[in-house]
Amino acid sequence: MIILAFAWPTISFLHALEWFFKTLYRENMENKVVLITGASSAIGEQLAYEYARRKANLVLVARRENRLWGIRENARLLGAKHVLVMAADVVKEEECRRFISDTISYFGHLHHLVNTASLGHNFYFEEATDPAVFPHMMDINFWGNVYPTYVALPYLRQTRGRILVDASMESWLPMPRMSLYAAAKAAVVNFYETLRFELEEDVGITIATHGWIGSDVSRGRFMLEEGAEMQWKEDREVSQLGIVRLAGGHVEEFAKLMVADVCRGYAHAKHPSWYDVFLLYRVFAPDILGWAFRLLLPNDDRAKPTSGRLFPEASSPRKPIAAFSSASPRRLSEVE
């Protein structure tokens, strides 16, 4: 406590100076190369548009290549100089090496790596009837960040580039129905916080955390078909028509904040910032946080596990939640 009493004013003063200078500084992204994983929807899509407005060269990576072509055209209209589209699975190291290598072959360098590929869920842990899907959640949400970072680091060192990571408040704020997702995001945050010390000033890292901002998961259920990538039902119908919608609202606002903060060199980007009050409760009064969850989030609507499905039936009167097909899933795909 004595050390903290002496150190706190000094640290606060230094942070204030750092914030002031970084507020004045903004990296010029014109003609710089930005690679975005999980760029086919939600945060990844909106980040592509934000970088496009700053006239950056883009490399869009996702499994849903048909979505990427429409996003490519939108990005070009918004000001992107060159936009490459690459279909790849970020949980496979060899595919990560391929799209990083192709990026370097085409542009010669890489300035920003943006990792947004993730997979959320909305179910109680005990409702899962097929634990074989559990590793896929970790593959997408954790290894889908690690592999692209591992391959891209040598090139980011050359340009003293930056890594932008899409994390979540659930990494430290326990939310019902999100146990696996929260665990994976916590692993992501701790990985990059540790990596930050290893890289020192050679490569900057911005960890973006958000509360509920609205995304594909709020629009309906998703289905996983045998041997096929996962697509949102509504998304699939739209893509068949060759239409790419510009999502709005909180997702777009958060994307603007993320790009602004990474260009200023901030270590963290948070939206909304008032979520930090829950962190105080988590540290100093966790029981109060638990009582609040039990009062505000009653669990009397929980369904019993049903054979062959990971999530409850679609006919449930509750709000739409995710469901897998009864076939045994082989793999999941990024949805953001």
TrEMBL record:
Any GO molecular function: oxidoreductase activity
Topology term for the membrane: Single-pass type II membrane protein
GO cellular component entries: cytosol; membrane
Keywords: NADP, Oxidoreductase, Signal
Top-level taxon of the source organism: Eukaryota
Residues spanning the signal sequence: 1-16
Pfam families linked to this entry: adh_short
Region (Disordered): 307-336
Family that this chain belongs to: Belongs to the short-chain dehydrogenases/reductases (SDR) family.
Protein name: 11-beta-hydroxysteroid dehydrogenase-like 5
Organism whose genome encodes this protein: Musa acuminata subsp. malaccensis (Wild banana)
